[in-house]
Structure formats: structure tokens, C-alpha cells
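User: Hello, can you help with two protein structures?

Assistant: Certainly.
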Amino acid sequence: MQRINGRIVNSLVGKITYSGDSKDDKFGINITADITVANDESEIASNDHVYRIVDDIGSLKGEELSDDEKVMGFAARGQNYIYLDKNFDGTTATHETFHSAGLKHIKDEIQSGTFGKPIKKIGNHFQSFSTNDYSGNLMHQQRDLKKFRTSNQGNKLTKWQLTMIESLYSNKKLNRGKQKTDD
């Protein structure tokens, strides 16, 4: 467990960068991590974030995957549980942690102007971002990037993403209660 603990902490601390909109943007990101191992559900407080290390997230979620696909992590937006495959790699723990903090995949975000996002409409409908938008952003999904043969995932977050997290937290839409096991 110490090895996994170290991998999670190392993927979070000092790895996220801010992709500012202008040179005048003064925005800092400081992430700290204090991870302990819980031996029982009763040791988990309602505001704790929980990393669950599992053998097969795909089957846990009921997904049918091809032989060359593997789900390395899963976290529901705004909830404080994070599932990681026992062999998670790269930015998986960080990416899933930011789902827990309320962020969606870039391709699932709507260009609506909220939180300072750009606005893009066709007719009366706001458009989604694509896997080509925000190169180097943490919230690109590996599966999409492989599918479209792009390498846009990185460790950057935008001002609108950080503003969204701050708003969700301030409006008590994050960390909503003690985690429950699915068994």
C-alpha cells in the first residue's frame, strides 16, 4: 500500500500547471496530499476523499471493453471516491481526482460562457469542445486520445476549470457525504 500511496501522492503534488488566458493572470495551484490507509469504513470521515484500488474497473462499472482497452480509473463528478486500477499509470490518479473535484472530460464540456469558458454556438445550440481543444489539458481522456490518434493530454488546467471547482466547492456541490461501498 505504501508504494501505491507514493504513486498517488507523486502524481498529485507539484505536477499541475495553470494555463492562463493572458500574461496578467495571476493564479496559483498548490496541491498537498496526506494519504492514509483505512482498515474499515468506520475510519472514513464524510469529507475524506477515498482512493479504492481495484483489479478491474471495467467490470466494476459493467463496461464491455475490447482486448486492447483497459479502464485505469473512474471517479464520479463531485463525489469523494476515486477508483484506480492496481496498475494505474501516468496522470490517472490526478485526472480522476479532478473528476471528483467536479471537472468533466474536455470533449464533454459545453462552450457556454459559464465560469469564463469561451462561447461557441451553432444556431441556438452551444457546442462541445473537442479532443483537439486545450492541448496539454489534464482532463483529456486517454481512451479518446488513442481513438483519435492525438496526444493532447498533459497536466494543465485552465482558469475556467479552476473557477468551476471553486464555485462547486463554495456552493457545497462537492464532498457530498460519506462514501458507500457498492457491494
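That covers the first. Now for the second protein you mentioned:
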Amino acid sequence: MVGETMRFEFNIEPVEQARPRAVRFGTGVRMYDPKKVAVFKRQLGMLARQQMLDRGLEPFDGPLEVCMVFFSASPDKHKQKGAF
């Protein structure tokens, strides 16, 4: 699939990547994502896998170039003040 373009769309509310949390584990430290971020990553992964399956595609195993575009509604406070 060299040079091919594919488009994936995910109708999911974006979640900001929060700072990872750390917990002491014996003599080490275990890092983990906050629950909201972990849930979002799981949901997005499932949506991506489903779109791959629907198209009959195998997981990628080489270099990948990605271009992303996000659309989001303006916060209500900006609409009221006319900032946008």
C-alpha cells in the first residue's frame, strides 16, 4: 500500500491528554493514564480497528504518515462575548 491515501473519520468527542499519574510499586514506579484519558484511548482504538476490519485491511507494519484535522464547537463563553 505504498503511496496510498486512506481517510478515517471518528465521531467522538476529543479528550485532552492529561499528565500521566504515577504510583509506587515495590521499589519501582508504575505510570498510568487518568481514567477519562484511558477510556478515550480504548474507544478510539476500537473505532479504528472496526474501520480497518470493515475495509478488509490488516494492521500496518511499516512507516506511516498521518495528517489530522479536528472539528470542535466553540466554547459557549466565546459565543457570548463575540470573541470568535
